[in-house]
Amino acid sequence: MSVASAWRPGTVRAAAGGLFALTIATFLAVTTEMLPVGLLPAIGDEVGVSDSITGLLVTVYAFMVAVLAVPLTLWTARISRKRLLLATLVAYTLSNVVVAVAPNFAVLAAGRAFGGIAHALFFSVSIGYASRLVQAAYTGRALALVTAGASAGFVLGVPLSTSLGTALGWRAAFGVLAGVCALTVVIVALLLPAVPGGGTSHKGEGAGARRIRLGIVSTANAVVYLGHFTVYTYISVLLLAAGLSAAGVGPVLLGVGAVGLLGTWFAATNLDRRPRTAVILLLSVVTVGLVALGIAYPALGGVLAATAFWGAGFGGVASVFQTAAIRTRGASPEVIGALVNSTANIGIGAGAAIGAAVLAGPGLGWLPFAGAALVFAGGIIVLVARRSFPASP
Hints:
This protein is an all-alpha fold. The chain has helices spanning about 5, 15-45, 50-55, 55-75, 80-100, 105-135, 140-170, 170-190, 205-230, 235-240, 245-270, 275-295, 300-315, 315-330, 335-360, 365-385.
C-alpha cells in the first residue's frame, strides 16, 4: 500500500505536520509573488523604467497564473500531488535566481513569468491538499491555518525582504529569497504526507447548481482582489508620497502585515461556525479602510492608520473565499483551488493595471477610492448570493 493510499483525513491536530509544511510553502509563495511591491521604486530606478511600468512585474506574474492555473491543474491531474508541489517550489527558487541576476527589464520580466507558471500550480495544489489532509468539518480551520502562511508572507516575508532590499539592494533580497525557497523544498519533502487526488470534475446530483455557486464565489473573489491590488500594488508609492522615508516602507509593511493576522485569526475562528458573517464583516472592514485611506491622503498619520485597518480586514479574505469555494463542491478540490487561484490572480494582475491607469490619469490620490468601489462591488455579490455564501457550513 502506498503512502498516499494509507493517509486518512482526520483532525487539524492529526494533520499538523502537513499543514505546517503547507503554511511554510505558502509563506514563500506569497513572498515571491509580492516582493516587487515593496521594491518598485528601486527596481524601476535601476532598470530605467517608470513606477507604472515596473508595476507590470506584478501583472505579468498574475497573468501567467490567471491563464494557466486551470489547464495546468487538469494536465497534471495524474501526477503525485506531493511531487507536483515540490516541483513548484523548485521553480520558485529558479525564478528568484533569474530575477536576482537579470541584466535588464526584459530578463527580469521573463524570470517573473516563470515564477507565475509555478504559482499557477502551487495554490491550485495546496488548497486541494489542505482540504484533503482533514475531515470536512475541519476544512475552514485547515485552510485558514495554511492561509496564515500567506499572511506571514505579508507580515514577515515582504517587509523583511523590502528592508533587506533597501539596505543591500533589491537583487540581494531576491537572492536571499531563492536560498530560503531551496531550503523549503527540503522541509516540505520531509514533513508533508502524500495524499491521493487530482484535478477531476465533481459529478453527481445537483452538479450544475454547485458549479453555478462555485462560479459566483470565484467571481466575487476576482472582484475583491481587483479592488485590493488596485491600491496595494502601489502601496510603497503611496507611503512615500505621504512623506514616509524609503527606510520606513519595510517596517510599515511589517506592521500592516501583523494586523492582517487579526483578520486571519477572525476567519479561523468563524469559518466553521459563521462563514457568511465572517466574509461580510471582513469585506466591510476592507472597504471602510480604503475609503478612509483616500480621505486621509496625503496626511501620513491618517494614511498609516487607514492602511492598518484595511490590512486587518484583508488578512482573512483569502481563507473565506477558499473555504466558500471548497464547500460548494462544484468540482474536485484541485480544480476548485485552480479556479480560486486563477480568479485571485486575474484580480491581482488587472488591479495592478488599473492602478497604473489611475496613476497615469486622475492621480495617486484616487487609487484608494477606485479600490474601495471594487471591493464594495464584491461585497454586494456576497450579500445577494446567499446560497454561495451560506450562514452555516
